[in-house]
């Protein structure tokens, strides 16, 4: 039994730090993807709503591909495809790019739904008051649309954060990958997965709480 | 003055407006009556270019509404409009609903816009609802809010598109009263309406529209008591 202890050592407090660092990487890659994906999603969602020909024939099918192909396949394809066209991107880079596009595709549809939720009569009322297209967009459509689809956006954000675990297949040491490393060493899957789960929870809980409070304020 | 000449409008294959000629003078109240689908609301939408036109010409105080060179956002400030659906901005209080366009379109300061909005709302009997959100207001109150919101742009003309059709019967009166008050103050008004009592009492002229054309236009007495057209009398017999 003594020889096995070379390979398997029990869980130490420094491992907790190792997990915390990995949680930070999860936060980093999902934070970047969600932020960029939301900004791009706003633009593409607006295009989906407004630009008829472009959105029907190019944008919509393109976004549909990224929404429907499993993320893990997209990640592996992108990571292996990049060197072929001469790009040298590390796992973090390719993971962030794929997650961003994936988020963009999801957010674009949420945004389109938000704009659509503000009916034509409401928009005509705004325009009849002399508002320009963009004044109507900023002061009327945005606040009403955001309230309508904010819960859906939170769902996307939380989903992307959890899905960022898939970037582990590329070797990026985020929470899931770190847990696997620790499990291999300590042979304590229950403890470590429970800890990893707790970290994921700690990352999503503030977002969920924050959105809950926002929604409550809006409903007044 | 609003001048409409040879106005034609199509929705796809449907010829909705078939050559409308109409003048509306300053200070006049014109009611437009007619069956649903006769094109009377479309006519109203054409006047402030919420709908495009296919033929003809509309001018407001000499400015051609549908000309490319016309700054339509500026022109629309002259043309207040109230719709069948009141379309209150649900995220804003009554006061903010009214103050929004004066602030962003007329570039008034926040406090001036709020003062103006408060005056407008008090004038129309909503002085105690300044800080209420639309979902706490009745349909009639929201429709009065929509009138105050349009008036806050200090328009020269007001267009009313079946403003009472979506209201519960007991709420119609307060909105008509608000419109009466406005007419008494000398506002130029074009009212598309199914309220024959209002059309008879308040209007200077009444136009009956049939299938996208003005069948008959005249004083309320002429239209309601002594219509020249067979179609007009048949329509009036049916709505009474």
Short descriptors:
heterodimer, A: 220 residues, mainly alpha, MetI-like fold, B: 240 residues, alpha/beta, four-stranded antiparallel β-sheet, 9 helices, 38% helix, globular
Short description:
Chain A is an all-alpha fold. In chain A, about 80% of the residues lie in helices and about 0% in strands. In chain A, helix 1 packs antiparallel against helix 7 (about 175-185), helix 3 (about 70-85) packs across helix 4 and helix 6 runs antiparallel to helix 8.
Number of helices of chain A: 8
Proportion of strand residues of chain B: 25-35%
Mean pLDDT of chain B: 95
Classify the beta-strand content of chain A into a percent band.
Answer: under 5%
Uncertain runs of chain A are none
Poorly predicted ranges of chain B (pLDDT <50, ≥5 residues)? none
Q: Any guess at the CATH architecture of the domain at 31-149 in chain A?
A: Orthogonal Bundle
Structural class of chain B: alpha/beta
The CA-CA distance between the termini of chain A, in Å, is 65 Å
CATH superfamily of the domain at 31-149 in chain A: MetI-like
Helix content of chain B: 25-40%
Helix content range of the residues of chain A, please? over 70%
Here the CATH topology of the domain at 31-149 in chain A equals: MetI-like fold
What is the rounded Rg of chain B?
18 Å
- Biggest sheet of chain A, in brief? none
